[in-house]
Write a structure and sequence with these properties.
The protein is built from 16 helices and four strands. With 372 residues, it is an all-alpha fold. It is globular.
Length: 372
């Protein structure tokens, strides 16, 4: 009954504001106003505790990647709307990690850990604090510096010029590309740009299926929603930074456009996408919906996607997505953390949780992109 009510409200919101063409991503009813929604969630993040892989109710032993996603989105939004107070609080949240909370810094030994470097590098862009730059660059550089005790598989990847952290999971193409592209923007050194793009092209060759969607891993042949979301966002974020003449740009653009076309075909009538994208028996999931909407918003705003077709799809997704926010500004129906497994029931039976940063972050990303 709650989902039927949410659908009814969303449809009423869609009908409340007449839109056409480019206005799909500009005019929204009050309850779906990107500034209000985005700031509400960014404030919620700024005032909350660090999470344990997205769960703010559990005390972490280190900063984990869902915090990175929410932190980055909140910093972007604070700058987009010129909210200096919010930005200052997000920076203050970081400072203890250079001192009394240094123990919470993740070890630079895995894609999910090294992505943390994107946060200090983002802070450096505005503050020019050299401590932020040094810390962030350490995470970017160690992603390609083979450890002395590296395993044979890690050495094999490094010998081919790829990150030793390569594992051919779809999550990686957000984790690796995000910190490497941040390093490129901070230094201007194309080494970071080129290796991230080359890594992306290799992943596309290995795990994108003919439909344009991605298996979770070669051993897990399922089109998991959020996993595909990491890939969609990773490609879109890379494309907005890659020069037009970059040798890998056409390969990545083709893969992105193919994926967007297939996602359009699997979007539910109400605007949502599902836990298993191509399975109509699967439940509607919010974190992947936010990620796919974000990738489409970037596509429309950068002229990669048809504004009428994809603007309408992104608008529908955004308005329905915000109907899943509860009174506390927490997103519901977020898939819990999910490892790759060759088991259909493993994906379909994942818990649906509330307020997890895996879901909060994409909503903030969407709000920021809509406001730019």
């Amino acid at each position: 009954m709650n989902r039927l009510l949410s659908l009814f409200v969303a449809l009423m919101l869609l009908a409340a504001v007449p839109v056409s063409g480019k206005d799909y991503l500009k005019k929204f009813p009050k309850k779906a106003d990107p500034r209000e929604v985005g700031l509400r969630l960014a404030e919620h993040y700024a005032e909350g505790p660090h999470s344990f892989y997205g769960d703010t109710r559990r005390k972490p032993h280190q900063i984990t990647y869902p915090d990175v996603c929410a932190w980055l989105g909140s910093l972007w939004l604070a700058q987009t709307v010129a909210d200096d107070s919010l930005y200052a609080r997000l920076e203050r949240r970081f400072r203890p990690l250079l001192g009394p909370d240094k123990r919470l810094l993740p070890p630079p030994n895995h894609v999910d850990n090294n992505v943390f470097g994107a946060v200090p590098l983002e802070l450096y862009k505005k503050t020019r604090n050299e401590d932020y730059r040094k810390l962030g660059m350490m995470y970017a550089d160690t992603q390609w510096q083979l450890p002395e005790k590296a395993k044979a598989g890690e050495r094999k990847w490094a010998d081919q010029g790829y990150s030793w952290q390569t594992r051919i999971w779809i999550d990686d193409m957000f984790m690796i590309s995000t910190v490497q592209m941040q390093a490129y923007e901070v230094t201007g050194d194309r080494t970071y740009l080129d290796r991230a793009a080359r890594e992306m092209a290799m992943y596309l060759d290995r795990i994108q299926r003919p439909s344009g969607l991605f298996w979770h891993s070669p051993e897990a042949p399922f089109f998991w929603g959020r996993g595909n979301g990491w890939m969609a966002v990773g490609m879109a974020e890379m494309l907005r930074r890659l020069p037009q003449d970059h040798p890998d740009r056409a390969r990545i653009m083709d893969a992105y456009l193919l994926m967007m076309d297939t996602l359009l075909k699997h979007q539910a009538e109400d605007g949502m996408w599902r836990q298993l994208i191509d399975d109509p028996r699967s439940w509607k999931e919010t974190s992947c919906t936010g990620m796919f909407a974000y990738a489409m918003i970037l596509g429309v705003k950068n002229g990669w996607l048809d504004a009428e077709t994809y603007g309408k799809a992104a608008r529908k997704a955004w308005i329905q997505l915000v109907s899943y926010l509860n009174a506390d500004g927490e997103l519901t129906d977020v898939c819990e953390g999910t490892n790759a497994k060759n088991d259909y029931k493993h994906y379909l039976g994942r818990k649906r949780i509330v307020g997890d940063l895996h879901g909060q972050a994409p909503v903030i990303w969407c709000a920021n992109a809509l406001l730019q």
